[in-house]
Specification:
This protein is of the alpha+beta class and about 950 residues long. The two termini are about 85 Å apart. The strands form five sheets. Strands 1, 5, 6, 7, 8, 11, 14, 15, 16 and 17 form a ten-stranded mixed β-sheet that branches. A three-stranded antiparallel β-sheet has the order 2-3-4. The protein has a two-stranded antiparallel sheet with strand order 9-10. It is about 50% helix and about 10% strand. It is rod-shaped. It has two domains: about 35-65 and about 150-210 and about 235-385 and about 400-460 and about 490-630, 3-Layer(aba) Sandwich (Kinesin), CATH 3.40.850.10; about 695-950, no CATH class. Helix 21 (about 720-725) crosses helix 27 (about 915-950) and helix 23 runs antiparallel to helix 24. Strand 18 (about 730-735) and strand 19 (about 740) form a beta hairpin. The chain is built from 27 helices and 19 strands. Bound molecules: adenosine-5'-triphosphate. Adenosine-5'-triphosphate binds next to helix 4, helix 12 and strand 13.
């Protein structure tokens, strides 16, 4: 099984808690109310129609007084023995002397019925006990020797009669199904509030349904338990053979209203225990039926004996039909619907249906209900709701409901609304709604006479549940297998309109003629069933027989065709009224009608042959969608929906996956952005660092340039002095012309960057105490200068290497992090170009600095060698030449003199030997060239290197 269909509310053991259907006001409708005005029928206030009826009812005595119809031109079907299509019956002869009994319920032996203690509607079944049956069967006589249990002896008339009429009086409690909102009382009675008939109504295995598991194929067995005499054994065999056991006929006598102690009543003998009705008057005789209910029997007993078993069979898969037949006002509606305190066949069947469902956990059920009426030979849907009003204020034309026939469904009305119901309360509400819409009117004989035949159809679909619990249910769902087919059976509960004499009112007369005509057709069909039954043995014959039967003469017989022709289990409840509380004429009329009803019942019992079989379980597949059981269609729909759900789930999952992907992508993008931001920040930091480094470098270069320029300017202006300048490098010439050795380092101090390890330099213009040297001849000063220059050089070297390192770092990080990351995005951008250019500049700067460094190293080397040579020369001079020790003044003079005489500076001084002088001159020249050349280069480079930086800024 692939699906689990909605189950009727299982915990219905508890009383229904919801509000019960709003019940209609009695007499709220009349036949002169058009279908369009049906809506008003639900009103709780008396309607004009009810007022009309009130008048008509008040015009009548408390109980309708039948008129004398001796010379009436009535069109009532008078199915007397003489004019019966079945042929005349001999006077005084019963139509049926032996009966087919107990086809439906088998009475529990312990349950008996006593006249003084009418059974409670909730008590166990009170069908006649087997003793009674035995007694009845053993009598076998036309006359009834014993009057035990007869109406005369046992009926407390006043109370019974009072109950009868009051039920339909506007002041009396309304009918259970069409009363006026007696929901509380309904609940209080317990009939509907305890939807657990197994306990309350003894439908359990211990009760009257001890054989509930049997089917109608078991009927022979059931019957054999209820009969013992040979006569009935013979009858039983015939019953079993021809299927008459599937037809149950019961007669119910309505209690009298008023005193009712008329002579007519004395002519009747009602023996419920023997299921016998005896009439001693003209055309009298004994009439045996399956059940005879006397005036004390309540609806529960009627249901238990006449319908309960049939209802159970329907639940097991048989079609079943229960209908009430009888003269107007005899209690058909009372028996079918009942009252709040005395629920009838319909509500009791509903309770039993749900009890059965509760007791059958291995099957699942689906119930749908429809409710129609045949009024003036037209079918109306009682569940269709109010008829819409057209533009002209007239009721809109409704599609006519027609009867159709197919092999699967038999005869059915279409289009007809079907409602799926899931609880007894819901089903009762639906039926109450239909009752509200049904046409009723006050007549001479019944203040609330049904003017139509009403048909409630409950379709029961059921199928086996999946055995093995949830696991196998899942398994079968997966394989889309259905464990069993769907069984569809129908329970038809029919309240016929009563046959009646011609009414004064024209409308009533029209209605009456239609009612009577259809009832006459019904009688005719049933009578002909009897005449044809011997001729038709086979199915083929049956079909040809059906053709000759006038089913189509009326809508009622057409609708009942499947039941009457044997496809259904049938239970007929005939209602009669034997007394007369009116005039003698009325009593006569009653007697005639009662006898007609009794004859109809006997013919039905004798003639209707039912071969009802359990319906086949259809697997649903193959059949067209329309004819498929709803349970099947639901299963397929559920499968389809489940498939859709799975697809939706899959789509949702993939959507969620892609959503997650997108989220991840977004996350990645965010991370990328953060990374880029960090890179950018780092880049900016590096740029700042580089700029700082560049500034420092620039200043350092300026400083160095200043130093170099001062040396150069000295060397360039006076070549001879340049040699001195080598000695006094870094010294400044005082205004007075005296040499005042000043540390060259001091001039650059202001520009010195705070380079780690760089010695702090003295302020510009400060003097060094030992600037003249310890000898005062400049030798020491030169050495000091050399030292100072060396220290300076070391500083520069360190600084340059620091700068180099930082530049290298900057370049690396720029290349790796910034340029690499951004190059693909910002390829060709001006910033990138600028960066590359900056790096190139830095490289050039480094190269320049390196070159300067080299120069300086060379200078130092030259100075060092010059210093050494001078020392040597000095040593030579001091060996023998006086005046070798000169004042600084003299030296300066000679120097200046040598400077002045370009090309022979040393000669002019004449202090150094020739070779040494030449060497020194070479060195000096070389230094001059180097300095001038390098400084020019450095200046050019500086300017070029500074330019972009300035531009950058
Ligand atoms: N067994 C009964 N016990 C008490 N009252 C009864 C019984 N049978 C019928 N009555 C009362 O008799 C009146 C007529 O009954 P009901 O309307 O059921 O007759 P009917 O056969 O349906 O008539 P119609 O064919 O005109 O519709 C109602 O007031 C009903 O309460």
């Amino acid at each position: 099984m692939t699906t689990t269909l909605p189950r009727p509310s299982r915990p219905s053991i508890a009383p229904p808690t919801g509000p019960l259907p709003s019940l209609p006001v009695p007499k709220s409708r009349s036949s002169n109310i058009s279908p369009a005005s049906r809506t008003s029928s639900a009103s709780l206030l008396p309607s004009p129609a009810s007022a009309t009826r009130a008048v008509s009812s008040s015009a009548l005595p408390q109980r309708p007084i039948p008129k004398t119809h001796s010379n009436s031109t009535s069109n009532v079907p008078t199915l007397s023995a003489n004019d019966s299509p079945a042929g005349p019956l001999p006077p005084g002869k019963t139509l049926r002397k032996t009966i087919s009994i107990g086809a439906f319920p088998q009475p529990p032996k312990h349950v008996g019925r006593t006249a003084s203690h009418p059974p409670s509607p909730l008590s166990a079944s009170s069908t006649p006990s087997s003793d009674t049956l035995d007694q009845r069967l053993s009598s076998g006589s036309k006359t009834t020797p014993s009057r035990t249990g007869s109406v005369r002896k046992t009926v407390p008339r006043a109370s019974a009669g009072g109950r009868g009429l009051l039920a339909k009086s506007p002041l009396t409690p309304p009918s259970l199904l069409n009363g006026s909102g007696e929901s509380v009382s309904v609940v209080n009675t317990g009939h509907l509030s305890l939807p657990s008939p197994p306990q309350s109504r003894n439908s359990s295995a211990q009760g009257s349904y001890a054989t509930s598991a049997t089917t109608f194929e078991d009927i022979g067995e059931d019957e054999s338990r209820g009969r013992s005499d040979s006569k009935n054994t013979a009858d039983r065999s015939s019953v079993h053979k021809d299927g008459k056991g599937n037809v149950l006929v019961s007669v119910r006598i309505r209690p009298e209203v008023g005193t009712g102690d008329s002579k007519q009543e004395l002519d009747w003998d009602i023996n419920g225990k023997r299921s016998l009705v005896s009439y001693k008057g003209r055309e009298g005789g004994d009439y045996y039926y399956d059940n005879v209910f006397d005036t004390q029997d309540n609806n529960a007993r009627v249901y238990d004996a006449a319908a309960k078993r049939l209802v159970r069979r329907v639940m097991e898969g048989y079609h079943g039909t229960v209908f009430a037949y009888g003269m107007t006002g005899t209690g058909k509606t009372f028996s079918m619907q009942g009252t709040a305190t005395n629920p009838g066949v319909i509500p009791l069947a509903i309770t039993d249906i749900f009890s059965y469902i509760r007791e059958t956990p291995h099957r699942e059920f689906l119930l749908r209900v429809s409710y129609l009426e045949i009024y003036n030979e037209k079918i109306h849907d009682l569940l269709a709701g109010p008829v819409a009003t057209g533009l002209n204020g007239q009721p809109a034309a409704q599609e006519e409901i027609k009867l159709r026939e197919d092999s699967k469904r038999g005869v059915y009305a279409t289009p007809l609304k079907e409602e799926i119901v899931q609880s007894p309360t819901q089903l009762l509400r639906v039926i109450a709604r239909g009752d509200n819409a049904r046409r009723v009117a006050g007549t001479q004989f019944n203040v609330r006479s049904s003017r139509s035949h009403a048909v409630v159809q409950i379709v029961v679909e059921s199928r086996e549940r999946v055995p093995g619990g949830v696991a196998s249910l899942k398994e079968s769902k997966r394989s889309a297998m259905v464990p069993g087919g769907v069984r569809v059976s129908t329970l038809s509960l029919i309240d016929l309109a009563g046959s009646e004499k011609a009414a004064d009112n024209k409308e009533r007369r029209t209605e009456g003629s239609h009612i009577n005509k259809s009832l006459l057709t019904l009688g005719t069909v049933i009578a002909r069933l009897s005449s044809d039954k011997d001729k038709s043995g086979s199915d083929k014959d049956k079909a040809s027989k059906d053709k000759h039967l006038p089913y189509r003469d009326s809508k009622l017989t057409r609708l009942l065709q499947p039941a009457l022709s044997g496809n259904s289990l049938v239970s007929i409840l005939c209602t009669i009224q034997i007394g007369s509380s009116g005039s003698i004429a009325a009593a006569h009329s009653h007697t005639g009608e009662t006898l007609n009803t009794l004859k109809f019942a006997s013919r039905a019992k004798n003639n209707i042959v039912s071969h009802a079989k359990k319906v086949d379980e259809s697997l649903g597949s193959g059949a067209d969608a329309g004819s498929r059981a709803l349970l099947d269609r639901y299963r397929m729909e559920i499968q389809e929906l489940r498939k859709q759900l799975e697809e939706q789930n899959r789509a949702k999952e993939s959507k969620e996956e892609s959503k997650e992907d997108e989220k991840e992508r977004e996350k990645d993008e965010e991370e990328e952005k953060v990374r880029e931001l960090e890179d950018k920040q780092r880049h900016e930091e590096q740029m700042l660092e580089m700029q700082l480094a560049r500034t420092a470098l620039k200043e350092r270069i300026e400083h160095l340039n200043r130093l170099i320029l001062s040396s150069k300017s000295l060397g360039v202006n006076n070549r001879s002095f340049s040699s001195m300048s080598l000695q006094n490098r870094g010294s400044l010439l005082s205004n007075s012309g005296e040499f005042r050795p000043i540390s060259a380092r001091s001039s650059g101090s202001h520009a010195t960057l705070d380079v780690p390890g760089h010695p702090s330099l003295p302020m510009e213009g400060s003097e060094e105490g030992d600037s003249l040297g310890e000898n005062g001849d400049g030798t020491a000063s030169q050495a000091a200068q050399i030292q100072s220059l060396q220290a300076d050089l070391a500083d520069k070297n360190r600084y340059i290497s620091t700068l180099e390192k930082r530049l290298l770092q900057a370049r690396r990080s720029s290349h790796s992090r910034v340029s690499m990351t951004l190059s693909h995005k910002m390829a060709g951008s001006s910033e990138d170009g600028g960066l590359v250019a900056t790096i190139a500049e830095k490289d050039a700067e480094i190269l320049n600095l390196r070159a300067q460094l080299e120069d300086k190293e060379k200078m130092i080397a030259a100075l060092t060698s010059a210093g050494k040579k001078r020392e040597n020369a000095h040593e030579v001079g001091s060996d023998g030449s006086p005046g070798s020790r000169r004042t600084s003044h003299q030296r300066s003079e000679s120097s200046s003199g040598s400077l002045r005489v370009k090309g022979s500076p040393i000669n002019s001084v004449g202090l150094l030997p020739q070779k040494s002088e030449r060497d020194l001159a070479d060195v000096t020249r070389m230094l001059d060239e180097m300095i001038s050349g390098r400084v020019d280069n450095a200046n050019g480079a500086r300017q070029s290197s500074l330019r972009p930086v300035t531009e950058d800024r």
